[in-house]
Amino acid sequence: MRLTSKARYAVTAMTVLALREPGGRTSLAELGAEQGISLSYLEQLFAALRRARLVTGVRGPGGGYRLARPASGISVAAVVSAVDPAGGDGAADDDAAAQCLTHDLWSELSGQLYTLLDGITLETLAADPAIIAALEEDVRESAGPGG
């Protein structure tokens, strides 16, 4: 498992949804404006999250996305795996000999990272005051002056 920009954006978006639970829906356009993520990129991420059954979509006026199950039942590792299933073990691809020598190290580190992230839920992130403050700041900045 490796942490890519795609994984970071997905975890951020899912944390926003967790903060808006229970039952709150968020449109991708709103989420993109708040977090500075392009709509097309969010559509790709949410397609993967929907396939992994981590979010559900509601069409029409007042529609948007919400978590498919409680935030306490969705780990950060599940989100990362959903959007980057072939995340690999983090080993370098440029030198096959060096990769063979360090493959076991990267595989072990990857496993430990997965275990760590599997123990962190969206509920945990949504309850963290620093994360709440950062997300609120993002929303204020996206509103612009006087917003």
UniProtKB/TrEMBL annotation:
The keyword Kinase does not apply. PROSITE patterns: HTH_RRF2_2. One of its GO terms (cellular component) is cytosol. Keywords: DNA-binding. The keyword Transit peptide does not apply. Pfam families: Rrf2 (PF02082). GO terms for molecular function: DNA binding; DNA-binding transcription factor activity. NCBIfam families: rrf2_super (TIGR00738). This is HTH-type transcriptional regulator IscR. It comes from wastewater metagenome. The gene is iscR_1.
